[in-house]
Specification:
Blueprint: E1 4-9, H1 15-24, E2 29-35, H2 39-48, E3 53-54, H3 57-61, E4 68-71, H4 78-87, E5 91-94, H5 102-115, E6 119-121, H6 129-139, E7 146-152, H7 166-169, H8 173-189, E8 193-201, E9 215-222, E10 227-231, E11 247-252, E12 256-260, E13 265-269, E14 276-280, H9 285-299, H10 307-326, E15 330-331
Parallel strand pairs: 1-2, 1-4, 2-3, 4-5, 5-6, 7-10
Antiparallel strand pairs: 7-11, 8-9, 8-15, 9-10, 11-12, 13-14
Helix pairs in contact: 1-9, 4-5, 5-10, 8-10
Length: 335
């Protein structure tokens, strides 16, 4: 395969717009179709870029020329769309979280394997230079054995409105933001999480319109004795320079590595905006992730972040809610 024809299913998640821009800058990729039940969201966009548009994703999947799809729907639809895409023989990049239950994620992984298609989870933070360099240093043993993690993925309410509707999102900040940094912890340790103990609440909506969790603290214990703590809250108000952060402190027996994943930036203080802002000059993590996805499919090699990776991080977030409900630690079942 010398060229990849990619279809996009749903633009419910705003990342889809970034993904489209990235794909259109890749000479080895054709965007062969956009399927979205919300015409007001993408019909004009597709026409502007001369991309076939479908109101029903099944019509896109019926196009034999489509090699792969990117799914950016509401979280509740990830499983349905992934299963249908696998049945149609399309490789899949699915937005995070991969699914809303361990059972459905296992089925997604199993069906993709049975149909001979690759399933990748959208974890772009893995491709940022500070994260890659940290992994290389860990592999060289530069800080000895990992003892603990302290991480943050503090953001603002992402929008659109479906993020605050549990029937569509499956959860709030704890689900939305735990999975990114949890994936890094899983990647760095190579060990499964055995137990999760968490807090979740609603504290950062000034108008008190949302009832879904927008704050939390997630504590995890790995099977190898490593433990970690993560703040996944939507705690950034409109005055903050950007939507959020991704940080991780890795404590080892012989040293510490500190990651500030979005620190490739200039601080800008403009009179027009009236506040400080961040002007990023570094890695485009979405472009790097998509390049890795496309390259793996073109070369016939395994995708770098697979469905099991998505399951392992999402099960921690789901377990966090079980812990909150019970008011005590929740023990995860071996996958």
């Amino acid at each position: 395969m010398s060229r990849l024809n990619v279809g996009m299913i749903s633009f419910a998640h705003a990342h889809a717009y970034d993904y489209l821009d990235c794909l259109q800058q890749m000479p080895e990729v054709t965007v062969g179709g956009i399927a979205d039940s919300a015409a007001e969201r993408t019909a004009a966009l597709a026409e502007r870029h001369a991309i076939p548009w479908y109101s029903d994703y099944r019509e896109l999947l019926a196009d034999a020329s489509i090699d792969a799809v990117i799914i950016c729907s509401e979280n509740v639809h990830h499983a349905e769309l992934t299963l249908a895409s696998a049945e149609a023989g399309k490789h899949i990049l699915c937005e995070k979280p991969l699914g809303l239950s361990v059972e459905e994620m296992k089925r997604m992984i199993s069906v993709c394997a049975d149909k001979g298609v690759q399933l990748m989870t959208a974890f772009p933070c893995r491709f940022l230079t500070p994260v890659v360099r940290a992994k290389e240093a860990l592999d060289r043993g530069e800080i000895g054995e990992i003892v603990a993690f302290k991480g943050t993925n503090r953001g603002s309410f992402p929008g659109p409105a479906w993020f605050a509707e549990p029937a569509l999102s499956g959860g709030g900040a704890v689900l939305d933001h735990t999975v990114h940094v949890m994936d890094l912890m899983n990647w760095f340790t190579g060990a499964p999480v055995e137990q999760v103990y968490a807090y979740a609440g609603t504290r950062f909506d000034p108008e008190r319109k949302r009832t879904i969790d927008d704050s939390g603290m997630v504590h995890v214990t790995f099977a190898n004795g490593v433990f970690g703590v993560l703040d996944p809250s939507w705690s950034r108000n409109p005055g903050f320079p950007t939507w959020g952060d991704v940080t991780l402190q890795i404590i080892g027996t012989e040293g510490v590595i500190s990651i500030d994943a979005f620190n490739q930036k200039n601080n800008v203080y403009g009179r027009t905006s009236g506040k400080g802002s961040w002007s990023f000059w570094g890695d485009d993590m979405n472009a790097l992730m998509l390049k890795a996805f496309v390259q793996a499919l073109l070369e016939g090699t395994p995708v770098p972040v697979n469905g099991l990776d998505g399951l392992k991080s999402a099960e921690v977030a789901l377990g966090a809610y079980r812990s909150v409900e019970a008011g005590q630690p929740f023990r995860l079942q071996p996958i």
